[in-house]
């Protein structure tokens, strides 16, 4: 008989409080995907090298493959599902769509997490700053330029919006 | 790539951490940011039976000035090296090294303490710590000790820490008048571990260099001080001849091995080129 | 008689992808996301050595491990499956050892699956894998292709007569004379590293065998569901009708996801044994060890020019190293075969000799990956052309302008036997020159050189094979469809659905099909729902391989759309008591072809035909569904062409290369959607640049892959990649109504060649020349004399 190592964790996931017992070895990514059905978070390498698994952890992008579910007990996790539902990245999503900044879509949720955090920290990034921010996000399909364009155009549009409203 | 089964405990004090470690019977491992531990678990390179999460121990958090020294506690995330005003001001070399460590999201979680304890010879912070002549504050059951960086990094993933000890903080000595720092590395892609990297700290007064320390990364089993190159620079001006002398002296500092993809002679060439460039930057505005 | 203006031209518009919205909302439906009731998970114990004999396998302890359902060996699985052999009949005397699911007596590459563990979770399956004991007697592996061909060399697999898989020679009668007469001959020895596809979603399969009905459903991240339906039916002894393959969203494929792999066969076999769903998702380490690798060519080549600087001949010897067996069902010889035929493709060159040797070694199989053969042929050709330019003291762009097949000289047959309907090399070169500001860049280069900054410009015209007919595989006996099929239907409320055999991996197949069908029916593409990737619901066809989605799939959709249009118009004419020729479809309606006045909405047609067919004049066919298949005829392939240019800066002290900018002028015939075409090109270019500068599967002497993780295998990332400027020339093929050719592989075909020429151009003052990919700092420094 296997020893029961499971721990109870309480995590705010996309604004909802989730309480579950999990094995300590379970990664945050596997927990989100397999136990909570939040499949926007993808796995591409399970070692921090591709960015497909990025989620917002306490408001900052973090790798769900490098984090154990037990480590986030008491913390706040937001996935692409949550960001979308809150409407905070609607303009980024629209810009990605307009510019065709995704093909297979497997990298997209990680790209959006990175882009979202970048624009919060640095509302006026230049192209090289955008590329730098994306340095841990692998995309095999697009060649990156469309993604850079989409982030740049979102930043520009946000600046104009702020200019006219304030 | 799934971790082997293990147990996990989160502790909220140093003494609880020591208790847990002892209870772990030699098979426990501390967990900070987890960004080295978890990939190693996923790869099944490690199989501790217990992880002791020390990330919320209050004594391990914070950045403060202490008797003129800057104290950076172990749980300080990499990202804070780029943003924390005290680090920017009092440990500019750490700040200069930080953008080269991994990628933005990794820097959000990985801790400076974890990075130093890991003692990866290709890592940026250990070299910066060595060049800053920083000291490690280590706590154990029996008390606290401070170990200078050059006595801390002992070999490949090997430090002066004894099993069960915890790195509490990094102490950075106060800056001297006229101190300058520079950091750079050569890597094939942004954020990759470097082919070679160099951290330099020196005092520049009356166009003369003094108090210089140079540390290289990715050139051996630990970060390496380039003592002969430093000697060649000491008291000199930052001109072409002095830099060339330092580059020439570097051969005596670095004991490079052939790698499958790059011979030792080429690695030395690159180290010299990099040294020239970083020194050039030291003189810059 | 005037016709009403056309308000429904959707082809050629930059329509956005409807299906992208799901991904942007985190609602992709990848095979890796699929959870089925009672599903169990697979993991494999793999050979730790590249070559050896299996002495013993002990699964006792593993079988007892927590969560384990069963532990399966070759004895359990292989009898369920008919072995497969990766040869084709039109490759004469080709040899390859038969394959079955798990290694039985021998292992032939490090990473070959030996034991399969099925458990309640992947983690538990991995736990149990660690408890399996496999005893293997090591044998010295065959790693170097040239040595493998030496007389008496050990063979990579048991049962092979030699390590030669296939060889062929292609030559014109006068090739030796051409070299004898040449004013100048340049030569080179090239080496193209192994690299691999690294799709972000790894291979994934969920096999679900239902013993109560004998029905096998396989959910698989593949680009060719029909091919796998056929494979699973034949190799597992099922009727085709009992096998359904569903490829929902696929996280990248690029050719890698159309080969037969041991693990997928094992997963199907295990599901048959257990009668429940079995899931296998390769983790990244397994991807590097078991996904097909690509390239791995050593090429010796020379090029002859006459006194006027006109290229007269090439001679090429390609050694392709393919791993321990040839891939199934497309073989591992197809790439080399294409390499020797694509050489010198853009040029007027009259004479040619190409030799190909395909060799076994103890590494994982290589096979078709995006732009099969093109990057190699293009790089060899274009590096030699730059060599000629240097030898003759001519500008490389001017030299190419003089040597390409002129735009008015078509149809043309190449020295290697390829037939070109109509290409546009001259127009593309002219466009490129203007787009990149060639003269200005050259002047800047000269100026910067004086300050110790070494920039280089590299140019690479290319041809690309698209719209392949049955000549590719079908004639060789492979059950690979060169035709595609579509069913188009009008719903009772006037929407349109199209079920089609070509598939979507993000390139935009579904969008262009919607545009094409929409245009035929006068319905906006947003109202056309395209359904792909399910063998039970779409007609049979080749799906996605060798650049055929737009050219062949698009033509199929166009013809299906027109068939339905005619049916709709016939019903409308009956309802309106009018003549078909006086009616047209536009704006979701039947309109008067002359005045444009709306006569009847499509919704009304749908309503009448579906709910009130009784009101139609007797004898009226009320069918609102049309089916159509299409296979290319005419030219064997629709060649496309274009030219790429790369601008780089080489740090001559460190060997690091900065990609400053990249240009592509591409002629893919009629453009269906410029937005999607441009992004296909950009993605392709970056894959080509990755191979040129970063990507390489490194092996040691023991045949061990030493960099098989995403931390050590360097894929191209955002910071290192340049912005890419794209221009178009449009020369539609006259073989189809649509006029479209393929574009998916064009970017990859020539990007590496352009980059190699650019690096060499930067290094020109140092007389250093690289002919090896990837161009690593170490290799560049070595070429510069820093050893
Ligand atoms: C994709 C990727 C790229 C990376 N690139 C770089 C890079 O370019 N340069 C670089 O330098 N690093 C790089 N890293 C490493 C990263 O910086 C590490 O995560 C960091 O070095 C370890 O910090 P951590 O807090 O995550 O430590 P953990 O993974 O939690 O711990 C690391 C080790 O230190 C021990 N430990 C941690 N904290 C303490 C303490 N206070 N006292 C005692 N023992 C302790 C742990 O037991 C463990 O053995 C990379 C990591 C990843 C995943
Ligand atoms: S899966 Fe987490 S970074 Fe790749
Ligand atoms: S869109 Fe496929 S990986 Fe980015």
From TrEMBL, chain A:
Q: Which residues form the 2Fe-2S ferredoxin-type domain?
A: 7-83
Q: Which CDD domains match?
A: fer2
Q: Which UniProt keywords apply?
A: 2Fe-2S, Iron, Iron-sulfur, Metal-binding, Oxidoreductase
**Which InterPro entries does the annotation name?**
2Fe-2S-bd, 2Fe-2S-bd_dom_sf, 2Fe-2S_ferredoxin-like_sf, 2Fe-2S_ferredoxin-type, 2Fe2S_fd_BS, Beta-grasp_dom_sf, Diverse_Oxidoreductases
Which one of the record's GO molecular function terms can you name? metal ion binding
For this protein, the record's Gene3D superfamilies field holds:
3.10.20.30, [2Fe-2S]-binding domain (1.10.150.120)
Write down the superkingdom of origin.
Bacteria
Q: What PANTHER family would the database entry show?
A: OXIDOREDUCTASE WITH IRON-SULFUR SUBUNIT, XANTHINE DEHYDROGENASE IRON-SULFUR-BINDING SUBUNIT XDHC-RELATED
Protein's UniProt name: (2Fe-2S)-binding protein
Q: Which organism is it from?
A: Pseudorhizobium pelagicum
UniProtKB/TrEMBL annotation, chain B:
The residues covered by the FAD-binding PCMH-type domain are 1-177
User: What keywords is this UniProt entry annotated with?
Assistant: FAD, Flavoprotein, Oxidoreductase
| Coiled-coil features, chain-numbered ranges | none
Signal peptide start-end: none
Top-level division of the source organism's lineage: Bacteria
Segments spanning the bilayer are none
Family matches, as InterPro entries: CO_DH_flav_C, CO_DH_flav_C_dom_sf, Diverse_Substr_Oxidored, FAD-bd_PCMH, FAD-bd_PCMH-like_sf, FAD-bd_PCMH_sub1, FAD-bd_PCMH_sub2, Mopterin_DH_FAD-bd
Q: Name one GO molecular function term.
A: FAD binding
Write the protein's name: Molybdopterin dehydrogenase
Q: Which organism is it from?
A: Pseudorhizobium pelagicum
From TrEMBL, chain C:
Which superkingdom? Bacteria
Under Pfam families, the record lists:
Ald_Xan_dh_C, MoCoBD_1, MoCoBD_2
Name the keywords, alphabetized: Molybdenum, Oxidoreductase
The entry's protein name is Carbon monoxide dehydrogenase
Task: Write out the GO MF terms.
Answer: iron ion binding; oxidoreductase activity
InterPro entries (alphabetical): Ald_Oxase/Xan_DH_a/b, Ald_Oxase/Xan_DH_a/b_sf, Ald_Oxase/xanthine_DH-like, AldOxase/xan_DH_MoCoBD1, AldOxase/xan_DH_MoCoBD2, AldOxase/xan_DH_Mopterin-bd_sf
Where in the numbering of this chain does the Aldehyde oxidase/xanthine dehydrogenase a/b hammerhead domain appear? 25-140
């Amino acid at each position: 008989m296997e020893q029961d190592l499971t721990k109870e964790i309480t995590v705010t996931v996309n604004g909802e409080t989730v309480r579950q017992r999990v094995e300590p070895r379970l990664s945050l990514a596997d927990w989100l995907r397999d136990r909570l059905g939040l499949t926007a978070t993808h796995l591409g390498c399970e070692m921090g090298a591709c960015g497909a698994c990025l989620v917002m952890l306490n408001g900052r992008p973090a790798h769900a493959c490098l984090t154990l579910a037990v480590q986030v007990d008491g913390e706040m996790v937001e996935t692409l599902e949550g960001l979308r539902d809150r409407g905070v990245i609607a303009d980024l999503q629209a810009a990605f769509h307009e510019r065709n900044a995704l093909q297979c879509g497997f990298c997209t949720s990680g790209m959006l997490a990175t882009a979202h955090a970048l624009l919060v920290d640095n509302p006026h990034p230049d192209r090289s700053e955008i590329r730098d921010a994306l340095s841990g996000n692998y995309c095999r399909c697009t060649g990156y330029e469309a993604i850079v364009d989409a982030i740049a155009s979102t930043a520009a549009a946000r600046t104009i919006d702020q200019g006219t409203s304030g | 790539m799934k971790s082997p089964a293990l147990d996990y405990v989160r502790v909220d004090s140093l003494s609880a951490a020591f208790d847990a470690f002892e209870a772990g019977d030699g098979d426990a491992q501390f967990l900070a940011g987890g960004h080295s531990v978890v990939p190693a678990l996923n790869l099944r390179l490690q199989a501790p039976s217990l992880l002791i999460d020390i990330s919320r121990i209050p004594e391990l958090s914070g950045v403060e000035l202490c008797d003129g020294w800057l104290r950076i506690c172990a749980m300080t995330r990499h990202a804070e090296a780029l943003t924390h005003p005290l680090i920017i001001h009092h440990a500019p070399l750490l700040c200069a090294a930080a953008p080269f460590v991994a990628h933005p999201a990794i820097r959000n979680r990985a801790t400076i303490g974890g990075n130093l304890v890991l003692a990866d010879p290709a890592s940026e912070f250990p070299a910066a710590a060595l060049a800053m002549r920083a000291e490690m504050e280590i706590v154990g059951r029996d008390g606290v000790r401070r170990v200078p960086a050059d006595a801390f990094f002992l070999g490949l993933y090997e430090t002066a820490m004894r099993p069960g000890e915890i790195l509490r903080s990094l102490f950075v000595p106060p800056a001297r008048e006229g101190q300058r720092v520079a950091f750079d590395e050569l890597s094939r892609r942004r954020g990759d571990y470097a082919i070679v990297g160099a951290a330099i700290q020196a005092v520049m007064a009356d166009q003369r260099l003094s108090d210089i320390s140079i540390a290289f990364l990715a050139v051996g089993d630990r970060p390496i001080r380039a003592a002969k190159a430093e000697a060649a620079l000491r008291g000199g001006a930052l001109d072409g001849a002095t830099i060339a002398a330092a580059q020439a002296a570097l051969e005596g500092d670095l004991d490079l091995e052939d790698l499958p993809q790059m011979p030792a002679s080429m690695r030395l060439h690159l180290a010299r080129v990099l040294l020239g460039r970083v020194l050039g930057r030291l003189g810059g505005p | 008689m005037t016709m009403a203006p056309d308000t429904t031209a959707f082809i050629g518009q930059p329509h956005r992808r409807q299906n992208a919205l799901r991904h942007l909302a985190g609602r992709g439906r990848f095979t890796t996301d699929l959870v089925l009731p009672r599903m169990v998970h697979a993991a494999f114990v793999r050979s730790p050595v590249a070559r050896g004999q299996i002495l013993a396998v002990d699964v006792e302890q593993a079988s007892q491990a927590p969560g384990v359902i069963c532990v399966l060996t070759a004895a359990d699985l292989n009898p369920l499956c008919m072995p497969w052999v990766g040869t084709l009949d039109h490759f004469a005397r080709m040899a390859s050892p038969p394959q079955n699911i798990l290694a039985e007596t021998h292992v032939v590459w490090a990473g070959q699956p030996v034991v399969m563990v099925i458990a309640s979770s992947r983690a538990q399956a991995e736990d149990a894998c660690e408890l399996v004991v496999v005893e293997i007697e090591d044998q010295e592996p065959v790693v170097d292709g040239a040595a493998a061909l030496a007389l008496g060399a050990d063979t990579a697999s048991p049962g092979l007569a030699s390590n030669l898989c296939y060889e062929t020679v292609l030559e014109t009668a006068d090739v030796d004379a051409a070299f004898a007469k040449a004013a100048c001959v340049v030569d080179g020895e090239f080496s193209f590293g192994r690299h691999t596809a690294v799709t972000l979603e790894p291979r994934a399969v969920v096999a679900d065998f239902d013993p109560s009905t004998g029905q096998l459903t396989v959910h698989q991240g593949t680009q060719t569901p029909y091919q796998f339906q056929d494979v699973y039916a034949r190799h597992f002894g099922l009727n085709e009708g009992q096998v359904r393959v569903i490829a929902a969203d696929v996280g990248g494929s690029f050719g890698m996801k159309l080969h037969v792999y041991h693990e997928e066969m094992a997963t199907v076999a295990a599901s048959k044994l257990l009668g429940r769903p079995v899931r296998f998702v390769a983790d990244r380490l397994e991807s590097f060890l078991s996904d097909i690798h690509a390239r791995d060519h050593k090429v010796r080549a020379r090029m002859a020019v006459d006194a006027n600087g006109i290229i007269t001949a090439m001679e090429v010897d390609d050694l392709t190293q393919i791993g321990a067996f040839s891939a199934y069902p497309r073989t591992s010889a197809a790439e080399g075969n294409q390499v020797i035929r694509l050489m010198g493709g853009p040029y007027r060159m009259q004479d040619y000799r190409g030799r190909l040797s395909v060799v076994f070694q103890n590494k994982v199989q290589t096979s078709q990956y995006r732009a099969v053969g093109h990057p190699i042929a293009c790089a060899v050709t274009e590096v030699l052309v730059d060599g000629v330019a240097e030898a003759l003291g001519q500008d490389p762009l001017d030299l190419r302008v003089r040597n390409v097949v002129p735009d008015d000289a078509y149809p043309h047959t190449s020295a290697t036997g390829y037939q070109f309907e109509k290409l546009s090399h001259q127009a593309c070169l002219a466009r490129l020159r203007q787009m990149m500001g060639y003269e200005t860049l050259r002047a800047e280069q000269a100026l910067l050189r004086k300050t110790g900054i070494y920039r280089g410009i590299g140019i690479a015209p290319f041809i690309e094979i698209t719209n392949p007919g049955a000549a590719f595989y079908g004639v060789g006996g492979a059950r690979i469809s060169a035709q595609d099929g579509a069913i188009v239907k009008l719903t009772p409320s006037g929407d349109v659905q199209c079920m089609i055999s070509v598939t979507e991996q993000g390139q935009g197949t579904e969008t262009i099909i919607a545009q094409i069908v929409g245009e035929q029916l006068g319905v906006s593409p947003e109202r056309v729902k395209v359904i792909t990737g399910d063998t039970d619901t779409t007609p049979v066809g080749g799906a996605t391989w060798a650049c055929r989605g737009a050219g062949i799939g698009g033509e199929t959709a166009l013809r299906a759309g027109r068939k339905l249009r005619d049916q709709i118009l016939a019903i409308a004419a009956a309802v309106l008591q009018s003549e078909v020729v006086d009616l047209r479809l536009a704006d979701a309606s039947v309109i008067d072809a002359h005045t444009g006045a709306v006569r009847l909405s499509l919704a009304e047609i749908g309503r009448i035909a579906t709910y009130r067919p009784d009101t139609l004049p007797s004898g009226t066919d009320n069918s609102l569904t049309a089916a159509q298949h299409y296979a290319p005829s005419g030219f064997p392939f629709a060649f496309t062409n274009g030219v790429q240019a790369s601008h780089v800066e080489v740090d001559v002290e460190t060997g690091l290369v900065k990609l400053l900018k990249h240009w592509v002028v591409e002629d893919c015939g009629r453009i269906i959607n410029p937005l999607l075409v441009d992004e296909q090109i950009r993605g392709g270019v970056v894959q080509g640049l990755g191979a040129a500068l970063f990507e390489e599967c490194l092996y040691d002497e023991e045949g061990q892959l030493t960099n098989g993780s995403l931390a050590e295998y360097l894929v191209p990332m955002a910071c290192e990649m340049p912005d890419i400027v794209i221009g178009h020339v449009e020369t539609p093929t006259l073989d189809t109504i649509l006029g479209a050719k393929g574009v998916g592989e064009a970017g990859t075909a020539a990007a590496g060649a352009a980059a190699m020429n650019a690096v060499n151009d930067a290094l020109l003052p140092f007389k250093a020349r690289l002919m090896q990919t990837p161009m690593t700092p170490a290799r560049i420094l070595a070429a510069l004399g820093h050893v």
